[in-house]
Amino acid sequence: MTSPPLNAEDERVLAALALAMVDKPRATLQELAQAIGVSKATLYRFSRTREELVDRLMAHGAQLMNRALAEAELDKAPAAEGLRRFIEGQLRHSELAAFMIYYWKPDTLQNARAAATWTVYFEVLDAFFLRGQREGVFRIEIAAAVLSESLISLLTGLMDAERRGRIARASLPGMIEALFLAGAQSPSGR
Question: 109, 113, 130, 159: which has the fewest C-beta neighbours closer than 10 Å?
């Protein structure tokens, strides 16, 4: 079951909350509300407890990442274009990605709903890389699952570095694509 679409202000509040929780992991709900410039009552519309807030932000982040995955149309786009659209789409939600990186727990996938969400996500990504391998764009000696995991690791690592101010935001999409393809691209795909 998916949540109803949020309005722009709710999206902004959730993104700000996600970053505030990364920057101030021990903050109370009152402190989080102050940090993002909303009342505690506004924050309570999203959740009444910190645990509910973490769950809400994790679900919202997963929904955004999956939406960006679908919008990249990896099943239709030429491999290089699909890769570019996937990277750009994932970067659009870097606040939620930062939150998910920080709050991810190994047992997250023990939850059936979370496991189903991420299983489908990786199945789509793996299928994209398999297709790209058949087309000669990606190296065939590296398993599609390894390519998927490598791209996600590169994305999350560099998103976190950007959040910490080590990398300029503007150069991030091209940098991720170049770094990934330097290791994943087939010699014949160059």
Answer: 113
In a structure prediction context, what are the per-residue pLDDT tens digits for the chain, which is 190 residues long? Answer: 455 567 888 889 999 999 999 999 899 999 999 999 999 888 888 888 988 998 899 889 989 999 999 999 999 999 999 999 999 999 998 888 888 888 877 666 677 777 777 888 999 999 999 999 999 999 999 999 999 999 999 999 999 899 889 988 888 999 899 899 887 666 666 5
Residue 149, Cβ neighbours under 10 Å: how many?
14
Greatest Cα pair distance, the chain, in angstroms, is: 58
How far is Cα 107 from Cα 150, in angstroms, rounded to an integer? Answer: 21
Residues forming beta bridges with residue 185, ordered by sequence position = 138
Domain 8-189 has CATH 3.40.50.2000: no
Q: How far apart are CA 185 and CA 132, in angstroms?
A: 9
- Residue pointed to by tokens 């989080």: 32
Residue the block writes with tokens 């990896």: 74
CA proximity to 74, closest of 89, 63, 88, 85: 85
DSSP for 127-144 reads: HHHHHHHHTTSB-TTS-H
**Entry pTM:** 0.83
